[in-house]
């Protein structure tokens, strides 16, 4: 049963791809009566717009233009997942002008609705003062296994070894970028889901949230 809605509350859920943060964030939002925002979709949609224009996602001008022209319909596209979208999202996310274009959008959303936001820099950059910050992670191998199951479940042909290599390459790019690198906030609670099923991970995350918030 959901608890009483908490308008204005922002919960930051960060971590690498396929660690389970999206599933956790959605369930926490439902439990707390908050909106949910997958901020990664903003970068995926930006990358996809650049690809649609036959441009290079590393092209700062093209990527910024795509970020500033996003519409809600872009976030509902069915082609925002998969290796090509992953690479494009990681490339545009490394561009300062793109991050600046999307930063106010994310902050306005959280402040207006109260929300659980999941991404890679929510607790470090977007909402550094969020009262609850989770950093969700898992081993490279387990994350690759989950992503492989996700892709094949959608009918996408994927090789587990290639998926693992691409996850590691994206991790390296996200962690080494000069602007808003992927890393846990100093005051984030780290949750390793490698050996946890969905219910156990959710129970652990909810316990953290309840421990940080007043009754």
Task: Tell me what you see in this structure.
The protein is of the alpha/beta class and 215 residues long. It has a single domain (10-212), classed as P-loop containing nucleotide triphosphate hydrolases (Rossmann fold, 3-Layer(aba) Sandwich), CATH 3.40.50.300. The chain is built from ten helices and five strands. The chain has helices at 21-32, 40-52, 60-68, 72-75, 83-93, 96-113, 122-126, 140-153, 160-176, 198-212; strands at 10-14, 35-38, 115-119, 132-137, 189-192. Strands 2-3-1-4-5 form a five-stranded parallel beta sheet, with helices on both faces. Helix 8 (140-153) packs across helix 9. The chain is globular. Residues 11-202 form the Cytidylate kinase domain.
In short:
The protein is 55% helix and 11% strand. By secondary structure, the protein is an alpha/beta fold. The protein has one domain: Rossmann fold.
Which keywords apply here?
single chain; 215 residues; alpha/beta; Rossmann fold; 5-stranded parallel beta sheet
């Amino acid at each position: 049963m959901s608890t009483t809605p908490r308008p204005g509350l922002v919960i930051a859920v960060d971590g690498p791809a396929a660690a389970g943060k999206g599933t956790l964030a959605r369930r926490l939002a439902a439990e707390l009566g908050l909106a949910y925002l997958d901020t990664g979709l903003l970068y995926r949609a930006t990358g996809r717009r650049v690809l649609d224009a036959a441009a290079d996602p590393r092209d700062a001008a093209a990527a910024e233009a795509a970020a500033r022209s996003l519409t809600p319909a872009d976030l509902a596209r069915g082609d925002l997942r998969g290796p090509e979208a992953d690479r494009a999202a990681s490339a545009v996310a490394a561009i300062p002008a793109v991050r600046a274009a999307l930063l106010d959008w994310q902050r306005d959303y959280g402040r207006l609705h109260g929300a659980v936001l999941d991404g890679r820099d929510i607790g470090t950059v977007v909402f550094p003062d969020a009262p609850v910050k989770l950093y969700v992670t898992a081993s490279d191998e387990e994350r690759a296994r989950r992503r492989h199951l996700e892709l094949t479940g959608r009918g996408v042909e994927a090789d587990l070894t290639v998926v693992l290599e691409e996850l590691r390459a994206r991790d390296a790019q996200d962690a080494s970028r000069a602007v808003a690198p992927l890393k846990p906030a100093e005051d984030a609670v780290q949750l390793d889901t490698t050996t946890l099923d969905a219910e156990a991970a959710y129970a652990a995350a909810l316990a953290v949230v309840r421990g940080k918030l007043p009754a």
